[in-house]
Amino acid sequence: MKLMVRQIVQHRVFEYFIVAVILLSAALIGMETSDALMAGYGDWIRWGNNLVLFVFIAEAALKIFAVAPRTGDYFKDGWNVFDFTIIVLALVPSTGDLAMLARMARLLRVLRLISAIPELRLIVATLMKSIPSMGNIMLLMGVIFYIYAVAGQQLFHAHDPQHWDNIGISLLTLFRIVTLEDWTDIMYTAMEMHPYSWIYFVSFVIMGTFVIINLFIAVVLNNLDEAKAERLNELRQPPTRDNLLKELDQTQKALAQLRQQLTDIDSAALHKD
């Protein structure tokens, strides 16, 4: 029984079904934002939310049953803990003081799409793995921002106090520049006072936008390659006894079919003679 349940929860069709339920949950959450839809179909939407929650609870119960009595194996997987936490939060009553928390918990169901799709899990794992390396890049970016913020405040605060009045405003202005949002307007204003101010802005855009952002991308891509390699190593784990027996059974069936084909060929040859 446990083997059958394990095969069900690991089957591709079951995964597709859970993804479809998550998408249905997202659609229902979106419908709840419309007063017109809630007025006309509120009962159906609430019934749909209860059905989605029931499917999630049933999924968790099946996965726990599949590894019983070693229930702890279910919670060793961080994604299972994530799914189970969302289910627990979804059981919060949707009335009274906890109504807002219940609505936010339903919104978290959409995040289950990440845990349901292996490719998304790989991307999230890559981002989490990239955080330490990104910290070093953020430190470098912070140093560059601080130097340019102090320099910008000293150079332009008298002519353009709206953008360079103090170091805090200067940092906010630099953040706007690094996003390339109308940064040329700030540059032209500065150039009214200092014609060569474009050197300051162009150098910061090159350093802050092209160099630093490309460093972020390089770190993520490098960790993505490493995560893919680790995933391949996991898939190459030694086969289990059940898998070996299954492959042996398939091989025996294939040999039996070959013997039957050889027998049929020999019979046809004898009839021709």
CATH topology name of the largest domain, in short, is Four Helix Bundle (Hemerythrin (Met), subunit A)
Radius of gyration: 30 Å
Question: Number of DSSP strands?
Answer: 0
In whole angstroms, how far apart are the ends?
Answer: 54 Å
The number of helices is: 13
Nearest-integer average pLDDT: 80
Model regions low in confidence, pLDDT < 50 over at least 5 residues: none
Shape: extended
Largest sheet: none
Query: Helix amount, in percent?
Result: over 70%
Q: In the CATH hierarchy, what is the superfamily of the largest domain?
A: Voltage-gated potassium channels. Chain C
What's the CATH C level of the largest domain? Mainly Alpha
Beta fraction of the residues? under 5%
- Derived structural class: mainly alpha
H/E element sequence = HHHHHHHHHHHHH
| Overall number of domains | 2
CATH architecture of the largest domain: Up-down Bundle
Descriptive account of the structure:
14% of the residues are buried. The chain contains 13 helices and no strands. 84% of the residues lie in helices and 0% in strands. It is mainly alpha-helical and 273 residues long. α8 (118-156) packs across α10 (167-178). It folds into two domains: 2-116, Up-down Bundle (Four Helix Bundle (Hemerythrin (Met), subunit A)); 121-235, Orthogonal Bundle (Helix Hairpins), CATH 1.10.287. The model has no long low-confidence stretch (mean pLDDT 80).
